[in-house]
Predict the 3D structure of the following.
Amino acid sequence: MVAPLPQSTDLRVLVIGDDPLARAGIAGLLAAEPGLAVTTQTGSSTPRPHDVVAWDMGADGASLERLRAWAGTAPAVAMVGDAETAGGALRAGARGVVPRASEPGRIAAALRAAAEGLLVMDPAYRAPVEPARPKDSAPDLLSPREIEVLALMSEGHPNKIIADRLGISEHTAKFHINTIFAKLDATTRTEAVVRAVRRGLLTL
């Protein structure tokens, strides 16, 4: 019997940017980094499966509206040119910001951290930028996808089952769970479910 081929553990990175030359250049540099499987996308094409997004905001941050529309689908690291754009990217839902001129290894490290659910802040932007915190009283505290993840969490399913049920990767499932913890100020799955039920976000 032929043994099945092992599944790739490479982090699937989608590179997005309005400038095709910059987009291709970033993709080429990241593709040389170990453990990354890189694809690119234009504004109109269908997204390929991915775990994290490397988003080139351009010199003037013109992609902020598009980033806002993508927020919540997968963690995104925005490559920005200044602190103002960095703040806008975080408010739009980015999980990290790094300078556009960063070395490929530094961008790759930020992508790996964001894929694990961490918030990545380059030291160049740490002082002038403060990420927006969601209001506990807001009715849209959790996104529809986060509600789906939370419902499966309440049933006791592990990350792999949650990912399979929703057709997402385990990286993305973990990203959503960490985001839920942060929004609900919870440290465990049980605590997150209890807090969500108390706020009327989930019915058991």
Q: What stands out?
A: The chain has two domains: 11-126, 144-198. The domain at 144-198 is CATH 1.10.10.10 (Arc Repressor Mutant, subunit A).
